[in-house]
Every structure is written in C-alpha cells, then in structure tokens.
Write a structure and sequence with these properties.
Blueprint lengths: L1 H13 L1 H38 L5 E9 L2 H6 L4 E7 L1 E7 L7 E8 L11 E5 L9 E5 H6 L7 E6 L2 E12 L19 E7 H7 L5 E9 L5 H12 L8 E2 L4 H42 L1 H9 L4 H42 L10 H28 L2 H5 L13 H8 L2 H12 L1 H39 L4 E10 L1 H7 L4 E16 L2 E10 L23 E4 H7 L6 E6 L6 E10 L7 E4 H8 L4 E9 L4 H9 L4 E6 H14 L4 H37 L4 H38 L12 H28 L2 H5 L4
Parallel strand pairs: 4-9, 6-8, 14-18, 15-17
Antiparallel strand pairs: 1-10, 1-11, 2-10, 3-4, 3-7, 5-8, 6-9, 7-8, 12-19, 12-20, 13-14, 13-16, 13-19, 15-18, 16-17
Helix pairs in contact: 1-9, 2-7, 2-9, 2-10, 2-20, 7-9, 7-10, 7-14, 7-20, 7-21, 9-10, 13-21, 14-20, 14-21, 14-22, 20-21, 20-22, 21-22
C-alpha cells in the first residue's frame, strides 16, 4: 500500500485546485452549522444562567388591585416556592431635547439590599435609599441612548402627575432583555424607558397603598405550571385578576425564544443544502478522475492490487478532501460564532456572556460532511470494482454517431473547427456534461436563494411601512377613551386624518392550541393601517368575526368559518366564541383584526378607542408633537420612521444578520463550483489541448476549445439554476421567518440578475485562472503519457 499512498499524495497535489475548491464548499457548510449551533447553545446557556442568577419569575399574575395579605394565600399554593407583589404602572418621560414624549414602565422596588424576584443587575451608580422617595434607577439602554447618567434629573409623568426624579443608578433586569412599548412590536432602546422607584412613591402615585397590581411567582422543583396558574387566577379573580401567564409568554422571553428557535431552524435547514452541493460536486470530481484514470486502474489491478485496495485508494481521496474541509469549517465556525455572539450580547443587553460550543455540532458536521462524501464514494467504488484489467487498459470504445442522421456534417457546415470540437465533446460525453450543468445549477440556485432573501427583507420593510401601514404617527392612551378623543386629535392643526384603534388583551384558544395576544379593532374600511390579503388588497372587516394573520391562524390551526374561543383579559373578562371570517397576510407580528363596532357589541359596551393612527403634515410635526405631549390622557407617541429604523436595526443585529454571511458564503460556493468544473475540464483535456498547440492552433484557439465548453455549460446551467432557486428561496424564507416578522417570497428579476452576475463573474475569473495555467504548461511534458 506504500505505492498507493504515494499515488494518493501525487493525485491530491495534481488536483489541488479542485480539491481546495471542494474543501472550501464543504468548509462553509460546516462553518454555518458550527456557527449557528454555537450561537444557539451560547444564547440558551447565557439566558438560563442569567435567569437563574437574578431569579427570573416563573409566573406573572397582573391584577387590578389586591391587598398585600393575598400574597400569603398565594404562597400557600402547592408548588409555589416564593411570591412577591409589586406595583407596576405606565409613565411618560419628557426630555428637553425631544418634542415626542417617551413611553416608560414604572416598577416598585422595596429595599436597598433586598433579595427579590426579577432582581436588578446594577451597571452604574448605586441603588436608591429606602428613605429617599425621589430616587430612581433607570434602564441602562435608555440612559445610554440619551446620554443620561447617575446624578441627572428626569421629568416623568406618572398617572397624570408630573414629577422630577433623581437618577442614582443604572440597571438592567432579566425581564427587559428585549423592551417594547405597549402596542409596538419593535424594540428601540431610545424610545422606551424602565424606571424602578421606591415602593412608597409607587403606592402613593398609583393609589396602591397596602396593595399590589402584579404578583411574581417562583416554582418549586416539581411544580405544575397549569395547576398553579389556575389556583392563582381563582385567588385573584375577586380583585380583578387579568389572567396569570408563564415565563414562556412574557414578551421579552418570548422574543428571545423566537430568536433562538429561528437560529435553530436555520441551522437545521440551510447548512445541509450547502453540504449537499459540496457532496455532489465531490462525487462529480472523483468520478471523472476515475474515468480519466481507467488505464492506471487497469495497470494497478494487473500488478496484483485487489479491487478493494484500488477502490479504497479513491475512497481515501474523497475522505481526505472532506476531512480537510470539515476541519477548516469547524475552526472557521468557532471564529465566526465568537464574532457574531457579541452582536447578540450588545442587542439583548445580557450583563455577561457564556460562549459555549455545542459538541454535538462538531459530531454532526463530521458525520454529515464525511457521510455525504462517503455516499458518493460508494458509487465510485462500484465503478472501480466493475473495471476488469484487460478492458480498463484499453481506451474506451468510440461513440457510434452513425445514427445521428448527418448531424456531424451539418455541424461542420455551420461552425468552424474550434466550435465543432466544443459541441462534439457535448455529444460524446452527455452524462459528464449533464453532471457539470447540474453542479453549476446548484451553485446558481444558492445564489438565487440568498439574493432573493436579501430582496425579501427589503420588500418586507417596504410592504409593511409603505403599503400596509400608511400612517405617520400612532398615539396611544393610558386607558380606553370615548370617540370624542379621536375628534380632539383630528382638530389639532396639521393632522390630516385620524383613525381609531381599540386593542383588547385576550387569549385565543382552538382545540389544544392557545395564544396570548390582542385583538386589534379597526374601522371597517381602514385606510391608515389595514388588513390585507396575499395580493396586498384591503380586506373589509366584517360586521362580526375575526380576521387572523396567517402566522396566528397556523399557530391555532384554524381556518375561515371555524370558531375560536376568546378569553378577554380586561374589564369583565368575558369568554367569547367568535368565528374566523378570513385570514390576512401580515409581515409583522401575529395580529387578529376585528371591526371596532363589532368588538364593542361583543364586549357589551359603548364604542371606545385605546389608540389612534394619524397622518400629519410633516411641516407642522414639531407643533403637533408638542400638543400631544401636553394631553394628559396620552400614554405614548410612536413615529413610523422610528419603528422602521428600529426594525432595520433589529434585523441587522440578530438572526437576520446571518443573511449577509450566507450571501457571502453562497458567492464563495458559486465560485468554487464553477472553478472546480473548469479545472476538471482542463485536467481531462490537457493532453488534447497540447496536441492542438503542436499541430498549429494558437493559444487563443486552444483556450476557446476549453473555455467555450465552460461557457456553454454555464449558459445551460443558468435557467436550470433559476428554476431550482425558485423553490430553494421558499425553503430559506420559511427558515428566516419568525412570529415577529415574516419574509415574503420575492422572485424579482433583480434576484436572478444578481445570481447570474455572480455565476458569470465566477466563470470569467475561473476561466482566467485556468487559461493562465494553460499558458505555463510545458508542451513536451503534457504530451507524455501518464503511467
């Protein structure tokens, strides 16, 4: 076997160009798998450690107003390890450099050094003193966005009372890793504040003396969440309980879970596609090497090497390339994962990071890459075993073209000699050419998919903020008001149009499926924020019935015409059975729409509004914002341009950021596929091309024979790759879509043009590299027979 080992090294060196290209393709697939698995493991472990260290509650129980002695009864529920009551209220922060007030959440904090649930991580300053009612802690992300520091004063409107409070410390908490203002989906650190104030201040401001309006519950080891939640609801119902919900439904934790699940789904769907392309490419390369080395295989068998020994020689060639690519991908995946994890650390505001690699990802990477390569190797072994020494040492029988009906003569009449040579190779070796076409088509499909995803993200932004949402400003109220509030907004100079919005907190149930969300009640023919169908046409809200967003309909597994149980989590907490009238296409969140008059009838109350969409005259925006800031019932003002910028930042800082990495990797793979095809074609024709040079062909004519074949293969592969990319884009778009945003399928001409440009650029570069090697070849050496 020593001779075969030397031959293996010589063969690998001879095909080093193809080997490096294939190893790179395998490597980037492994890179994605290791990187994404590492991100999932690191984020999951960091979240778990953070929650445990700062005692994140297992259950949240909001209530209108309950006396403190009720906490003892809650603590006596079997399975409850600890209970804590607190006062929570909405507030507005007024900064002198902004015309728009910022929404805030105010939370009571009992003692200076008290160990509590949902404890705080102090990042600057100190905790407030128990006897200083005007001292507060501020969420550090909001402080950083507005350059606030301990010692600064903050003007806050709490329950209609304007106060000047002193910032003594900056903090972060496990329940505010992802912060969104009520009624919004996008997180923006600069537009939403969290304030921790003394218990005495919160009780006096929100009329909660000796009472609480939210209970935090921690479970014991063997607790059953559903049973505890029902017991908590029974105890709090007389006091206006709004329905207990678990940690999995808490908004911040839900978003982070969606991010981790999105990364996990992408890591399971996208890297195998890259690895499959690499395995197929590896099979094509080695199978064509086996075909080119028929005589050498025959000689080896004639000298006494067994079929198994010769087959294992080529099998080891496959494994060598696959293993090198896997090792490269593992190392590069570690580096890429470490670099990307800091984006998540900055975005989610974790106070620390536990970067951990998933050992299973390395095992999976080795098994998938080497296994896929081995599958192709088995097919090649069968081909080696079938070659008998006598027949292998003879050149293959020439193809019989007698039945082509004079096709050769017509080619001779229509094309010159170099063109006939290119076309003749296609006719003589159609299976080989088909393999090359399929390989490049796969690279084209990856490029189409990633170009489509980049366009899809942009189209999602454009459709949501230009087509679905046509408003400029959203004004939310501290509580539901009568319709007269809408007329007051409409009367503000500069407001062109105002539309009402009623948000009702509910729990949807259908069969065994449930979802905690809101019903967004709009006008029947809303214009500023609409429910639309798949063609982006407005859906007229029916007089009765729900219009569910497609993601919500899929979560509940419900279709139009079926009934959904709706448990209202406010007011009298009615339980309604409402039919599903239609399913809408939305690109942000999972809303449920309803006619605003229909929801009022269902709740048995007069028509009220909790927010309003406004279209305004931009030249008078400052005047309008200052007027809104002075209205006592206004709880927040959201600008669409800020929401758009927040979503763009979010997509570029979390799971969506990987789309740029994958786009770059798709370009690398496209080049690797084309370059490998060019190197294979050159290796097969090196002897023939040298003969052409000797008999008088110029360098350009010889290069045309080789590169003309490559150009023809690429041109045939482009439409095939575009077709495969059509379906591949749908698969990748589904992997990137989450409950927060959905990526629409975009098959724009720009996507195909971009992908085709990548392939054609790769073809030009590959052709130049191969032609450069051709010009360096010694003709005498090339004409010698390799034995």
């Amino acid at each position: 076997m020593i001779a075969l080992n030397r031959k293996l090294l010589r063969d690998l060196w001879r095909i080093r160009g193809q080997a490096c290209a294939i190893a790179a393709v395998i490597g980037v697939g492994v890179l994605l798998l290791v990187m994404m698995s590492g991100l999932v493991t690191s984020l999951d472990e960091t979240r778990r450690a953070y929650y445990q260290r700062y005692r994140f509650a297992d259950l949240f129980a909001p209530v209108k107003r309950a006396p403190n002695p009720v906490l003892e009864r809650l603590a006596a529920i079997p399975g409850v390890a600890r209970v804590q009551g607190r006062v929570v209220g909405r507030a507005l922060v007024d900064l002198p450099d902004s015309d728009v007030p910022f929404q805030a959440q105010a939370i009571s904090r009992s003692g200076e050094n008290e160990t509590t649930l949902n404890d705080l991580c102090l990042t600057g300053g100190r905790f407030q003193l128990s006897d200083q009612a005007d001292e507060i802690l501020l969420l550090d992300s909001f402080a950083a966005a507005h350059q606030l520091a301990p010692g600064d004063s903050l003007t806050v409107t709490m329950n209609g009372v304007r106060r000047h409070l002193l910032i003594v410390g900056l903090a972060r908490a496990p329940e505010f890793l992802y912060t969104t203002a009520p009624g919004e989906l996008m997180s923006d650190a600069s537009r939403y504040a969290v304030i921790w104030a003394s218990r005495a201040l919160m009780e006096s401001v929100y009329d909660m003396d000796g009472a609480f309006n939210e209970a935090l519950v921690a479970f014991s080891a063997q607790a059953r969440q559903a049973e505890i939640a029902r017991a908590v609801d029974r105890l709090l119902e007389p006091y206006g309980g709004l329905g207990a919900y678990g940690r999995e439904e808490q908004s911040s934790n839900r978003f982070i879970s969606d991010e981790i699940d999105g990364l996990r789904a992408t890591s399971r769907s996208v890297p195998p596609i890259f690895l499959a392309v690499a395995a197929f490419l590896l099979y094509i390369v080695v199978s064509r090497i086996v075909q080119a080395e028929r005589e050498q295989i025959g000689l080896l068998k004639a000298f006494g090497y067994t079929d198994l020994e010769v087959g294992l020689h080529y099998f080891r060639m496959i494994l060598s390339i696959a293993i090198v690519g896997t090792l490269f991908g593992c190392l590069a995946g570690i580096v890429a994962g470490r670099a990307l994890i800091y984006l998540y650390l900055e975005y989610f505001r974790f106070p620390f990071l536990l970067f951990q690699l998933n050992p299973g990802s390395f095992i999976t990477a080795v098994l998938v890459s080497v296994g896929a390569a081995s599958a192709g190797g088995v097919l090649i072994l069968r081909r080696v075993f079938r070659l008998a020494p006598a027949s292998a040492m003879r050149p293959p029988a020439p193809t019989d073209y007698s039945r082509l009906g004079g096709c050769g003569r017509r080619l001779a009449a229509a094309f010159d000699q170099p063109c006939r040579m290119v076309l003749r190779r296609f006719l003589r070796q159609p299976v080989r050419m088909l393999g090359a076409i399929v390989g490049i088509a796969a690279g084209m499909a990856l490029a189409v998919a990633m170009a489509g995803i980049l366009v899809g993200f942009e189209r999602m932004m454009a459709l949501n903020f230009d087509v679905i949402d046509r408003s400029d400003v959203t004004v939310s109220f501290s509580e539901a008001l009568s319709e007269s509030a809408l007329y007051e907004l409409q009367s503000i100079p500069g407001v062109i149009k105002a539309e009402p919005l009623r948000s009702v907190s509910v729990v949807f149930r259908h069969g065994l499926n449930s979802y905690r969300g809101v019903i967004t009640a709009l006008q029947a023919e809303a214009q500023l924020n609409r429910a639309v169908d798949k063609n982006m046409a407005s859906i007229r809200l029916p007089q009765q019935g729900l219009v569910l967003a497609r993601p919500l309909a899929e979560i509940l597994d419900v279709s139009p015409g079926e009934l959904v149980w709706v448990e209202v989590r406010e007011g009298r907490r009615e339980q309604l059975q409402i039919p599903v009238a239609a399913v809408a296409e939305t690109l942000l969140g999972a809303p449920a729409f309803m006619d605003i008059r229909a929801i009022s009838r269902a709740l048995g109350e007069a028509e009220r509004i909790s927010a309003a969409y406004l279209r305004i005259d931009s030249s008078r925006s400052g005047e309008i914002y200052r007027r809104l800031k002075g209205l006592p019932a206004v709880a927040g003002v959201s600008l669409k341009r800020d929401s758009r910028a927040a979503l763009q930042k979010q997509m570029d800082s979390s799971t969506g950021a990987t789309r740029f990495i994958m786009a770059a990797i798709a370009a690398v793979i496209a080049f690797g596929v084309v370059y490998s095809a060019a190197r294979i074609a050159y290796a097969e024709q090196a002897h023939d091309l040298a003969i052409l040079r000797v008999v008088g062909f110029s360098r350009g004519e010889s290069a045309f024979v080789l590169l003309g074949e490559l150009a023809l293969v690429v041109l045939l592969a482009l439409p095939a790759g575009a077709l495969i990319g059509y379906y591949l884009t749908a698969l990748v778009a589904a992997a990137y879509s989450t409950d927060l945003y959905q990526i629409p399928l975009c098959f724009s001409p720009a996507s195909y043009a971009t992908a085709a440009l990548v392939i054609l650029t790769s073809t030009a570069l590959s052709g130049w590299l191969v032609q450069r090697d051709m010009e360096k070849v010694d003709l005498v050496s090339a004409l010698k027979t390799s034995e």
